[in-house]
Amino acid sequence: MTLQLNITPQAKASAQALLDYIDTSPSPWHVVATTAAMLKANGFKSLRENEPWQFKKNGRYFVVRDGASIIAFVLGKQPTAEAGFRMVGAHTDSPGLRIKPKAAQSNEGIAQLGVEVYGGPILATFTDRDLSLAGRVNVRNGNGFDTHLIQFDQSVVRLPNLAIHMNREVNDKGLVLNKQTGLPLIFGLSPNHEEAYALFTNKIAQQLNIAAKDILTWDLNVYDTQKGSFWGVDEDFIANSQLDNLASCHAALCALLDTHDQEATAICALFDHEEVGSESATGAGGSFMQDIIQRICSATDTNEEGRLRALANSFFISADMAHAFHPNHAGVYEPCHHVRVNQGPVIKTNVNQRYSTNADTAAHFIQLCERAGVPYQQYAHRTDLGCGSTIGPIIASRLGVASVDVGNAMWAMHSVRESAGVADHLSMTTVLTHHFKS
Ligand code: ZN
User: Which of 170, 191, 224 is the last residue of a domain?
Assistant: First the structure.
């Protein structure tokens, strides 16, 4: 086995940029705000879905839907029908805990927040961490309301473990948390439910500099305040929350920012709700992608036949993370499909279409890697284990386009603190750049 072990300064800088992107994006709404700010800083113009669109030659644009999904694109030099689209998709959401609408409660003087479980997190990883809250709050303004992004930098909530003296079997049977009774987060002291609610809403009001009575609703995500880090004796690895799938979002975004004067229109689409099945107005199962493609066709004088020809000339890369080989648990992997961190992007295959990859699209991606000078690996799940899925099969079936599922290898997927390899991020960004320019 030949291993690629040297990590270049460029790879390290790329991984640092990823950690910074995650640290400024503690909720899907922040991911979109961070992404939009980077696009604007690089000359992309914001478009609104409720306005007519007119494009400039080789224009660079982005569209946000409901604050948590974003599609950015760079128009190609060739006619849309002839050149088609070079697309990359990823997801802005991560599994975790979300605050309920009337969350605050008092339990024997301890103020707590009720939470819902979003998607499939490893719940035990949320215990004993310096957790906080980030998301959006709707605040009354005369006739309507304004939406404010909110983030508490300091830790304002916590889920303490039960002492081992009351949970003697925790190391043999694992930490089991009842989703209703085991997850409410402690945030302060309060004698009753009403005062607990006031304590919580006053904290939000103070943070936003508004009156607590004007708070209408919120979407609040529980996040880990610990910043991203490099680890290992040679700092070969990175750790942070949300690597699944902000690593792919960031790679796709950086690849698009680096795309100029290319032949085909390049599209980077980052969707909310992947972790809960993608069926929503903002999710990959909704109309967002089709609507944007239709709008691009209309604004580039591409008729219906031209749109279908464009899709037939297109290629979609679904970028989401992959399961790295863990040496302490070698038995859970398919033999000969052990994928390793720092050994390049992973092509994911599942014949039951949990992944959209087929032999043709995998071959296409392999050749992109070869042209980009990037190593690649191939993954298949153990046959007796249920395989996860991605937005790949959803987009492929909605659009009828050729599609491949790829991603970088990582450990502890769906933990609040995931880890991955330093070298892989630049490799993925490089191959996605080659795709946009192909
Ligand atoms: Zn994912």
Answer: 224
Domain that holds residue 137: 96-224
Q: Tokens 């949320």 belong to which residue?
A: 126
Q: Separation of 90 CA from ligand 1 center, angstroms?
A: 8
Q: Same structural domain for residues 71 and 204?
A: no
pLDDT in tens, 168-223: 999 999 999 999 999 999 999 999 999 999 999 999 999 999 999 999 999 999 99
Q: Where are the alpha helices (DSSP H) in 143-235?
A: 170-173, 193-208
Cα–ligand 1 centroid distance for 173 (angstroms): 27
Residue 118 CA to ligand 1 center (angstroms) comes to: 13
User: Tell me: the pLDDT tens digits for 16-74?
Assistant: 999 999 999 999 999 999 999 999 999 999 999 999 999 999 999 999 999 999 999 99
Cα of 37 from ligand 1 centre, angstroms: 23
CATH number at residue 188: 2.30.250.10
220 Cα–ligand 1 center, Å: 20
pLDDT at res. 3: 66
Sequence-distant (6+) residues with CB within 8 A of 225 are 130, 131, 132, 153, 154, 155
Total domains in the chain come to: 2
Q: Are residues 129 and 160 in the same domain?
A: yes
Q: Are residues 14 and 71 in the same domain?
A: yes
Q: Strand, helix or coil at 194?
A: helix
Q: How far is the CA of 198 from the centre of ligand 1 (A)?
A: 36
CA of 175 relative to ligand 1 center, distance in Å? 24
First vs last C-alpha separation in the chain:
31
Asked if 400 and 267 sit in the same domain, the reply is yes
Is residue 108 pLDDT above 80, yes or no? Answer: yes
Q: In whole angstroms, give the CA distance from residue 25 to residue 134.
A: 9
In the reported structure, the alpha carbon of residue 216 is separated from the centroid of ligand 1 by a whole-number distance in angstroms of: 31
Claim to verify: residue 142 and residue 101 sit in the same structural domain: yes
In a domain, 235, yes or no: no
CA of 391 to the centre of ligand 1 (A): 9
pLDDT beyond 60 at 1:
no
**Across all residues in the chain, what is the average pLDDT?**
96
For residue 215, tell me if it sits in a domain: yes
109 C-alpha to ligand 1 centroid (Å): 39
* Contact predicate 345/378, CB 8 Å: no
Q: Within a domain: residue 366? A: yes
Whether the per-residue pLDDT at 2 is higher than 90: the answer is: no
